[in-house]
Amino acid sequence: MNNGMRFKSLCLLTVIFLNISLFGIERVKLNFTQKPYLDAHKNLHLQLNVTNFLNHQIREIRINYRDISETIFKSQRMTSQGFQYFASVNLSDLEAEIAEYYFEIEYTDGENESYPAGTPEYNLLSTTVQNILQQDEGIIIISPEEDESIFTDELVITVSFAEFGSLIDKERIKLYLNTWDISRYLEVYDEFLTFVPKQVPAGTHNLHLELYDRSGNLIAQRTWRFTAFQRTIRRPSGTNALNFNGQFYVETRQEKFDIANSHENYSYGGLNLYAVNKQWELGAKLFISNRENSNRQPINRYTLFAQTNFWGDRFFRITGGDAYPQMNPIMVRNILLRGIYGQLFLGFFNLDVAFGNVQRSVSSTPIFDDTGVTIDSTVSAFKREMLAIRASFGTRKVFQFGLLAVKTKDDTGSIEVATSSPTENLTVGTDFFLASTRQEVVLEGTFGVSLYNSNITSGTIPYDSLQQLDSGTWDEDTRSYYEFASKFITINEFFVPKPNMAFDSRLRVRKYGNTFTIGYTYVEDDYRSQGQPFYLRDQRGFAISDAQRLFQNQLYITAGFRQFKNNLANNKPDTTTNSYLYFNLSYFPIGNLPGISVGVNAVNRSNDLKLPKASNSAIPIDNRTTTVNFSTHYTFFTGNFDHRLSLNLINYNFSDNVDNTTAYFIGNNIANTITVNLRSKYSIPLITNVDVSFQQTENAQKTENKSEFTLISGGAGGEYTLKDSFTKNDALIFGTFARYGKIENISTLQNLDYNRFFLNGRIIYNFVRHGRLSLNGDLINYNYSNENSLDYILTARYDVNF
Amino acid sequence: MKANFKFVITILLLIFNSLSADDDMVAITVKARGQVKLTRANQVKSTPIKNGQILEDQDKIDTGPSSTCAIKFLDDKSLLRIRENSSCTIETKKEKNVVDKNIFVNIGSFFADLFKPKGIFQVTTPTSVASVKGTQFWILHFFDGRTIYICIKGLIDISNDAGRVLLREGQTAEVDSRFELPKIHITTEDEIPIGEEDRTDVRVLEIGFGGPNNQVKMLKVDIKDLVNE
């Protein structure tokens, strides 16, 4: 690449990165490939496209999500395929009607970034989660009844749904006997369905029924079980014999990035094995990648586990290798442990113990430029060991009380060259859970206290030496405290003597279709639990939300308010208050009418400073972000074709109220986005998707420094399935998707227009019992000022379940 | 011309039947053992009933020796068990989603278990009419015209030309004729029929424990096996 091209490339990168979009200014750029959607089972499907100009090595992308009434996020890893990342997040256990989420990228050099910018404190993405009718409304199980015992040759499945009348689309009814879809065998009448198989295997079986309306919306479902016995006296099968199953997968990917002048190969494979009977569950998981490197945190995964079941739900489980202990939301969660994790559940008493490494030692290595001069160094990490013990009382159906202690310590001699200091951390705490019999009222909370030493290199130093280093108050109480604490943690001049605490609580009341939640959070600045590295510190505040379902879950109204402040110890230059007010109304008509969702969010950030404080370098912050979104979707039919049209409008307005004549004025930003999407299903096995998107962003820092960004993009794609193509029960799927985007960027710094073309093609072959082979190709072409860059990713993957 | 007319009539009948068929479907057979026969309304010929047979208004069910049948109503899953050598006709009247039911008993023994009944559930014999307000009860109608009602749970309102009585849980009513008021007494255990579904090869194991003062305590264990047919 010559100097001229390289200069233009750098300008392109600068312009792109200066473009203040919802997805921020970071190493890579994320865009939704298609609008996230929620399926009938409340799985949120997301598809991201990653623009990675400089080929920053991504270790993983995670989606962090939560109920809007909560403060703590759950986390799920996204699956990568070429430039795209996919996730299917199950939101069915959320209590509120709105889920908030954001994305987190972890790079192989240890750096992390979150998207959109500002998350998780503010600027979260959200989606409405529609709850379907309660399970026992409208569906009458005639036969077999819940937990009924029958003979294997006299099963009659009959369900009545007269209350729904003509709303039910009889063609879409789904009934599953265990995992077997028996829908096509049903005799469906106006108000009931029935199926009489000749025989059913002996044992306990599950039946799962789903009823859909004519728009394809799931409006009711029910699951129940029964037991079938052979007429000769015999125990149902499956009590002693082990049932085996497993999965195997392997994938290889070739990536080429023109601008970054890089060409990489990624290959990985995995094997999951399970064996289960009434008493035992055994399993093994293996994941191997060619990117595994002793100079990075582990990518490979090795796990073995065994669980033995006692009477009722009681069990003992031991996991060796890589595990993800989830003991407490503010002390042990979202962390990879390589060691041993044991769980004993007896109900009246439970014990969880986890010990091992949560961080691998990685020594820092220098980074050289083209001339061999050291310009930087990689981030180091000490080997970190963790021991966590939690004892609890109660099954957590209506009551549980837990006590937990977590200790982490870095091995000071584990690396040669360090860019950071070895640390040590001790956290103890409790958690409680109280609920009414049907969990209509739930009160839960957790409290933790931590001790932290930010640099244990010198080890514990004598009390007298410590006295000489610090001129603070030293008395008998201090000595007693030193002697007590030094048994558990290294004490030197870097030790934070004051224990820091965190408290998180929530009260939820559910009644008559209304869910009211109120929560309070208090986390001091130096509170740390290295068993939960993603917990936001130095904040206190409350959150209130209320969600109401009306008219048989057709109308949802959600409103809430959150306010959090930092600087609890009053030791920062200023105190910032974040307030978040939201209102959302969603209408999901049962009949074939358009669904509508309208939402307004307003986020205020302010530190009440008009002018900077010369004494402590605090600068004024006073801004408001208002987002108004409107979306609607409509399903209509033309002949035998099924279409779903959706329209999405977003207005994003960031206004900075700081005096715009000062240097602290960030600027105002307005962005409007319109997206129209049409998804069609045909009588032949073809699905097509067409969308058009328009985005306009204006960014004004000062009157002389403005930029305007306009994006127009259109995409179309389709997927065709050939069933029984080579043999019976196989399927060959052809898919393709193309998107073209035209970007105009007018800026006082640099005007730069460019076009972006993305093309994806895939072939997937499904052969039942023999696996699934998929080939995927992604191509991106950038065209700017008559220069071109071409990037591609080619992926081949094989999966098989057995 | 005649052939065309017959063809049109046939098509009209089929259409009419298909339009009305769903409305007439009121119950389903969940268990049929032995000789169980179904006679549709306005038909003479009877057909064997199998599991899953859909029943309509005015259907007549007959059971032979050592034969039983269990049906459930589709609107509220009320259960009617028909024992051996019995005969009844199902009469229903449907309004919106509620089905009023009348079991016209010709002969035999029946057990009804009503779970949150919708509409009226009534049993009619030649000598009496019982309106059920409860959940579980037996009806036995004999060749000599007697009818016995045994109320296991709930209330049964029994009426005939002589008057009306309310039968409560744990009581038995005997109706000898339509001109005599039903006689009520406390139900004894041996009066309650053991149905095919209830009959088991029950073995009782008794274990005696000797106490310190020469007391003997007995532990009784009922071992229930499923009937092997």
Topology:
The complex is a heterodimer of chains A (802) and B (229).
Chain A: H1 3-18, E1 29-38, E2 43-51, E3 58-67, E4 74-77, E5 79-81, E6 84-90, E7 98-107, E8 112-115, E9 125-128, E10 140-143, E11 148-151, E12 157-160, E13 174-177, E14 180-181, E15 187-188, E16 192-195, E17 203-212, E18 218-229, E19 243-257, E20 262-276, E21 280-289, E22 301-309, E23 315-323, E24 337-345, E25 350-359, E26 366-368, E27 374-377, E28 384-393, E29 399-410, E30 424-435, E31 441-453, H2 463-469, H3 476-485, E32 495-511, E33 514-523, E34 539-550, E35 555-565, E36 577-587, E37 595-606, E38 622-638, E39 641-656, E40 668-681, E41 686-702, E42 705-723, E43 730-747, E44 752-767, E45 771-784, E46 787-801
Parallel strand pairs in A: 11-18
Antiparallel strand pairs in A: 1-2, 2-6, 3-4, 3-7, 5-6, 7-8, 7-9, 10-12, 12-16, 13-14, 13-17, 15-16, 17-18, 19-20, 19-46, 20-21, 21-22, 22-23, 23-24, 24-25, 25-28, 26-27, 28-29, 29-30, 30-31, 31-32, 32-33, 33-34, 34-35, 35-36, 36-37, 37-38, 38-39, 39-40, 40-41, 41-42, 42-43, 43-44, 44-45, 45-46
Chain B: H1 2-24, E1 25-33, E2 36-39, E3 46-48, E4 54-56, E5 60-63, E6 68-73, E7 79-82, E8 87-95, E9 98-113, E10 121-124, E11 129-132, E12 136-141, E13 147-153, E14 155-160, E15 163-168, E16 171-175, E17 183-186, E18 201-210, E19 216-225
Parallel strand pairs in B: 9-10
Antiparallel strand pairs in B: 1-4, 1-6, 2-3, 2-5, 5-8, 6-7, 7-9, 8-9, 9-12, 10-11, 11-14, 12-13, 13-16, 14-15, 16-17, 18-19
